[in-house]
Amino acid sequence: MAPRHSSRDEVGAFAQQVVDEITWYMREHKISRADLAAAMGVSAGRVSQILSGDENLTLRTLGAVTDALGARLEFTLGDAEGAADAFPDT
Fold first, then answer.
1. CB under 8 Å to 3, separation ≥6 — which residues?
2. Each residue of 15-57: pLDDT tens digit?
3. Angle at 61 between CA 76 and CA 12, to 5 degrees
4. Exposed, middle or buried: residue 50 (CB in 10 Å: 0-12, 13-18, 19+)?
5. Which residue, 10, 26, 53, 55, shows the most beta carbons closer than 10 Å to its own?
6. Cα dist. 88→8, 17, 28, 85 in Å?
7. In the chain, what are the domains?
8. Residue 49 class from Cβ within 10 Å (0-12 exposed, 13-18 middle, 19+ buried)?
């Protein structure tokens, strides 16, 4: 039986996936961190914090990043394994 991952692990993995998508987009479009910082009106250090994977990114921050990149962020919400147990009959 595989060990169950905590929701903290899952949130961390999701945050890292988002950062990975942003860095992939930047690489594909040849956008540097300095370019992103200038487009966002923030310091290069702030962009490094955002892209570190350790930052607790808000939706506002993600919106600012994607807006500065001229990109769109999409996600899909679906059932997780054991989701039926999360909300017993109400």
1. none
2. 889 999 999 999 999 999 999 999 999 999 999 999 998 888 8
3. 55
4. buried
5. 26
6. 22, 30, 44, 6
7. 22-71 (1.10.260)
8. middle
Among 24, 80, 82, 18, smallest CA distance to 50 is for 18
For every residue of 29-74, DSSP letters joined together read: TT--HHHHHHHHTS-HHHHHHHHTS-S---HHHHHHHHHHHT----
71 CB-contact burial (10 Å; exposed 0-12 / middle 13-18 / buried 19+): middle
Burial class (CB in 10 A: 0-12, 13-18, 19+), 79: exposed
d(CA 56, CA 70): 22
Q: How far apart are CA 90 and CA 88, in angstroms?
A: 6
pTM of the model: 0.75
